[in-house]
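task queued by scheduler; priority normal; single chain, no ligands, no partner chains; default sampling; output format set to structure tokens
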Amino acid sequence: MYKFRNRYSFDAYVKLEREVSNIQSSTIQLHYVEWDSVLLQEKGLVSNWKVTRDYMFVCKLTDAVVIRNRLWEHVSHETNLLQQAAIYVIPFVGINMNDYRAGIQAVIFDGQCKVAEQFNVEWHLWQDQRFHLLSSYQPEGALDAASLLLDHYAFVDQREVEMLLTVLDTDRNTLLLFAKPA
């Protein structure tokens, strides 16, 4: 047992112990915040919920998110020691997605909305001027899904593909991976 020289040392130790236990907590408060790119300031809260730390990686590593039937593009993110994380978003523009924007929006908004009971991953491949569902499965965990977001190229169903855009569809509980043949 550690002996404290004075009350101040003990209070500092207790405070540090609380901060460390907060850091190691399995959940974190996640805020999606709309960002004003002109005024360079927060516009308002889009969504807010508690997530596991593993799931937070999926949230932060995607390029965009669907929340309440609206597509948002990520511009930045941060986490503080108080167990809060923020992802700053703007309405989806898809500047680098000119050739694919309509196809992406068709997959997200025009199809049948199937809500997955368990977190799901869908690969969509660009072919014949539209996206086709290539593969769908339940990952072993959030980190398994997050690992898909780390590379620009992947092999899916024995095909090499190049990642175009990654979207976390919170309405459907699905990670959407949009790719083209490599």
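post-processing summary
- Strands lie at 27-36, 41-52, 64-67, 70-80, 84-91, 120-127, 130-137, 153-156, 159-169, 174-181.
- The two ends are 60 Å apart (CA to CA).
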